[in-house]
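In response to reviewer comment 3 from the previous cycle, which asked for concrete evidence that the modeling workflow produces usable outputs, we include below a single protein chain processed end to end. The sequence was submitted unchanged, and the resulting structure tokens are shown without manual editing.
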Amino acid sequence: MSITELLFLVEDDPEGGFCARALQTGIFVQGETMDEIRTAVREAIECHYENADARPAVIRLHYVHDEVLAS
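The workflow returned the following structure tokens.
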């Protein structure tokens, strides 16, 4: 069974840059910029799904940024 859409949760990395993990698989990548994250996600998907027909048609990046405001 192939996945038609793969969702990545992208968060700020405490050490700088970003980290992204796929919610449906064990794919995890890191990058300094969002462009690096996009490239790393594509490369990781190509490695994880060797058969191009099994790769998801849609890759969704959901960026979560928490901000705390003092009262």
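The chain has a mean pLDDT of 93. We consider this sufficient to address the reviewer's concern, and the full set will be provided in the supplementary archive.
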